[in-house]
Design a protein that fits this description.
- With about 475 residues, this protein is mainly alpha-helical.
- The protein contains 21 helices and two strands.
- β1 and β2 form a beta hairpin.
- The chain starts with 9 loop residues before the first helix and ends with a helix.
- About 60% of the residues are buried.
């Protein structure tokens, strides 16, 4: 009997409701009063966070004919995604407020967030494909929403690669359905061991390829720097952070549920992808002077570390809580760094941040906390996230991957310090970074909130891990 329980999907329903109401309100409200849509979006997300937090202590359940799983992992993803939407709205408010597409911006954020959450809870390949599309199409529109030359080019590249990856994902799902006789993960887990190995391998690789695009991992990472540099700061922050949350959790759920008894060493494949992704991201970031491209390659390297938890899926009890904690830490810290970039739109290169500490102490402190956090410096949340992920990898028999990750972490110190050093340096021949415009207060506030949240989450990581451990 189908378990239709809409009450288990309150956060998702709130996102749908806010998107529909926001779209209708934006169609009728005058352009100078589109801020009402922003209020609707923020209220829905905050209410959804409360509902998701309340669900964390309830038993896991599968709803709608076992196609969607509501468990602790999904609860963590819900909270992180909804909070990330609020932070993105805060850091982008100064740029989109009063624009002709303000309402559309908030609606597309909500729809992209809904697709991200649905990917994380999907327990069926067809639902995964639908969620993938919902987490992709609104972001294509967001990337080009400003109608600038770089934004339009970035949107075109993003769309073309996304369309190719989406088709690849659908082909993989079709192959697995053909050899497994079902699209549900549980049924596939029972059927795939007896299916032709070649067809299973091709199908799973195709599905993973689609998810690799979504999280921006090697070899489908090429879109990340172009989109982050070409889109507006708010869109770049969202695209470089939020979809990765759903994509990584979808990959974790798929591999831990569907192929635990497979003859193919899928954890090794993911481990190799993790090692290559973190290494390429760090090496490419070394030579970047543009802060947006630096953050873009930084996000690629962070995905490599996060993939370590996916590689340890089913082989280490710490893998799932480590992934949940690291995703939360990464999201808040990365959005904090983008918020500083949004607060200083005139500072495009690392050198442009020269003298920031003497002019804007709190903003400089927020930037330093976020950049040191991305390195993994205690007591920030990413430090605890990396520590738990590395431990999970060792427990899963992937000690070599943990060693590579430690070496990459040490190497990443160089390019993050390249950005931090000018903040505290002043030279007579280089002007200080300009004052944030009066409209930059919201992004400045968002940067400070994100930096504080990174520290608080790092200090309280113990209880968070205990809550995620099931």
């Amino acid at each position: 009997m189908m378990n239709e329980n809409p009450g288990a999907l309150i956060p998702e329903l709130l996102l749908v409701f806010a998107a529909v109401v926001g779209l209708l309100a934006g169609s009728f409200l005058p352009r100078n009063r589109q801020g009402a849509v922003r209020s609707i979006a923020v209220l829905a997300c905050l209410t959804g966070v409360i509902a998701a937090a309340a669900d964390l202590t309830r038993p896991a359940q599968s709803v709608f004919d076992d196609t969607y799983v509501v468990d602790v992992g999904l609860g963590a993803v819900r909270i992180v995604v909804l909070a990330s939407i609020v932070l993105t709205i805060g850091l982008a408010r100064d740029q989109v407020s009063g624009s002709t597409r303000e309402a559309e911006f908030y609606v597309l954020l909500l729809l992209g967030g809904l697709g991200t959450v649905a990917m994380a809870g999907a327990n069926d390949l067809l639902l995964l494909v639908a969620a993938y599309l919902l987490a992709s199409i609104p972001l294509y529109a967001l990337t080009g929403i400003a109608r600038t030359g770089p934004g339009t080019e970035a949107a075109l590249k993003y769309y073309l690669m996304g369309a190719l990856s989406g088709v690849t994902l659908l082909i993989g799902a079709t192959l697995l359905f053909g050899v497994g006789g079902s699209t549900q993960y549980g049924d596939l887990a029972a059927a795939l061991p007896d299916a032709p190995r070649a067809a299973v391998a091709v199908g799973l690789v195709a599905v993973l390829a689609g998810l690799l695009f979504k999280i921006g991992a090697v070899p489908l990472h090429f879109w990340v720097p172009d989109v982050v540099q070409g889109a507006t700061t708010g869109v770049a922050a969202f695209v470089a952070t939020v979809p990765k949350i759903g994509g990584l959790w979808a990959m974790y759920r798929l591999l831990s549920t569907t192929v635990p008894t497979s003859d193919v060493d899928w954890p090794l494949l993911v481990a190799v992808l993790a090692a290559v992704t973190m290494t390429l991201g760090n090496l490419a970031a070394f030579f970047q002077d543009d802060v947006r491209r630096l953050l873009a390659y930084s996000t690629i390297s962070q995905v490599g570390y996060l993939l370590m938890a996916v590689a340890a899926a089913g082989r280490a009890t710490l893998a799932m809580p480590a992934l949940g904690l690291y995703l939360a830490a990464y999201a808040v810290t990365n959005l904090g760094a983008f918020a500083v970039v949004a607060a200083l739109p005139g500072a495009r290169t690392v050198a442009d941040y020269r003298g920031l500490a003497s002019r804007h102490r709190l903003l400089a402190l927020s930037l330093v906390i976020c950049l040191l956090g991305l390195i993994g410096t205690p007591p920030t949340a990413v430090f605890v996230g990396k520590l738990t992920v590395f431990t999970a990898a060792v427990d899963a028999g992937l000690a070599w991957l943990a060693v590579i990750a430690v070496l990459n972490t040490m190497a990443s110190v160089f390019y993050y310090l390249r950005w931090i050093a000018p903040v505290f340096r002043r030279r007579p021949d280089a002007p200080d970074v300009g004052e944030p415009a009066p409209s930059g207060r919201s992004s400045t506030r968002s940067a400070q909130i994100a930096a504080a949240a990174s520290l608080v989450l790092g200090v309280s990581a113990g209880p968070v891990l205990a809550l995620l451990t099931v």
